[in-house]
Specification:
446 residues; alpha+beta; Barwin-like endoglucanases; 2 domains; 6-stranded mixed barrel; 10 strands
């Protein structure tokens, strides 16, 4: 009987110890902590720490039940009277912790929604989903005024949506094919409108006309020869998959928490770019909105040293060095566009890190040599999960690649993401011009 009672108490304490489970520390992403066991946002567990917690709780329960059976009944009755107070305090603390956690989730969802609205205005449903989650979490945090504010924001977005996919307005056509003025533009801007709602009806037309007026100088200058001639294909290159936030392993000698050019790469990206297909959608991680282009790659050369000085050979081996030079130590490889081909599919990515394994093999990157032998079967190119998914690559595969100038990058998902992306910058300029034209049109009516 006593053994059964001891085991039962120890089991109850062990279960209580698993209500909040420890999470591992991820360098550059988040510190170690605890999360609610049923939380779907993060499923990571620090298993050894959890095991220690469970064993400690079980031993504590066994010790307590052994002590309590020896305490006089009168003392137990006195202790029982304190139980309601303890329960009330525990419930109060639990409610406080729960509401604070919900408020933090709401703030994070709202921030992600704002970033999605600014960076990816064509993904309105994604933005609304983030705001909807934020409103739900504000209610769980018992902050109904904040929930109402987010709901009103959603209604405003639904009444006046930006350009949507399938609406006939594409930001993939940011480079004007013709600069012939459209007579209907002036007619639209000077036409009298009864109200702001009338202007909203013509917003799509104004956006399209604004995009046609974009200046092309937001892109890097091109060479005198076509990209395919200037930058030949590197064929049959062993290609491996890496990702931002990848931990160190036997096949990965250095963690990809930071890059050769960005000491806060993971944080600036927005989090770990998980390669798990179940945690990705439309080439993006589901957990957050990346602030940088998810289509990225790594090549085994760095044109600058750790002291942020150009390497002696950089000015001679980097083909675009002279026309792209902006200052000492300002890498001319970082953000360079690369075409990657597998079979009949070609993907485009930005050069964001150095590797695999080496940072000095310019004879291969810019010359005719093959990649040096290494632990990954002589790999000469690392690609991101987004590139992997677009091309349908295996963890280790074979591809062709070549450098391309920005104005030779065709339409595709790689043109839609990233704060440093040439095409995202152009899109923002188009939106700013739209706002300015809308304001000027509204002033002209007065």
């Amino acid at each position: 009987m006593k053994l059964r009672r001891t085991l039962l108490t120890a089991g109850v304490f062990a279960l209580l110890a698993m209500i909040y489970v420890p999470t591992p520390r991820e360098r550059g992403v988040h510190s170690a902590g605890y999360r609610f066991i049923f939380s779907g946002e993060d499923t990571s567990i620090a298993f050894f720490q959890l095991l220690v917690n469970v064993v400690f709780a079980a031993l504590l329960g066994a010790i307590l039940v052994t002590i309590l059976v020896r305490i006089p009944k009168r003392a137990l009755y006195a202790m029982a009277r304190c139980i309601p107070i303890v329960v009330i305090v525990a419930v109060g603390v639990g409610v406080f912790v729960f509401t604070e956690a919900a408020a933090n989730r709401a703030q994070r969802d709202e921030k992600n929604g704002q970033e999605a609205l600014v960076l990816y205005p064509t993904e309105l449903q994604w933005t609304l989903t983030k705001f909807r989650n934020a409103a739900t979490n504000w209610r769980l945090a018992l902050r109904f005024d904040q929930a109402a504010r987010v709901v009103n924001r959603m209604k405003e977005l639904q009444r006046h949506p930006g350009p949507q996919k399938g609406s006939g307005i594409s930001f993939d056509d940011l480079i004007p094919q013709s600069r012939t003025p459209n007579p209907s533009t002036e007619q639209f801007q000077t036409a009298p409108e009864a109200s702001a709602s009338d202007f909203a009806k013509h917003a799509a037309k104004l956006r399209e006309q604004s995009l046609l007026d974009l200046d092309p100088q937001v892109f890097a200058p091109t060479g005198s020869r076509p990209a395919t001639e200037q930058f030949p294909w590197k064929k049959n290159i062993v290609t491996t998959v890496f990702w931002i936030g990848e931990p160190q392993s036997s096949e990965n000698p250095k963690a990809h928490v930071k890059s050769a050019w960005d000491a806060n790469w993971t944080a600036n990206y927005g989090g770990v770019d998980t390669p798990d297909s179940s945690a990705r959608r439309n080439y993006l991680p589901i957990a957050f909105i990346p602030r940088q282009n998810p289509f990225y790659c790594a090549l085994p050369y760095n044109d600058v040293t750790d002291n942020r000085k150009f390497k002696p050979e950089a000015s001679e081996v980097v083909p675009w060095f002279k026309r792209g030079y902006t200052g000492e130590g300002q890498s001319l490889c970082w953000h360079r566009w690369v075409a990657i081909r597998k079979g009949n599919r070609t993907c485009y990515a930005e050069w964001e890190d150095c590797g695999p394994f080496r940072t000095d093999h310019f004879q291969y990157v810019f010359g005719n040599e093959k990649p040096k032998p290494n632990l990954n079967h002589g790999a000469g190119l690392d690609v991101s999960p987004a590139v992997r998914d677009y091309l349908g690559l295996q963890p280790t595969d074979v591809t062709d690649w070549q450098f391309v100038d920005p104005d030779n990058v065709p339409a595709g998902p790689w043109r839609s993401y990233g704060e440093h992306n040439n095409f995202v910058i152009a899109r923002r300029q188009a939106e700013q011009r739209l706002v300015q034209q809308g304001g000027n049109s509204g002033n002209s009516k007065k």
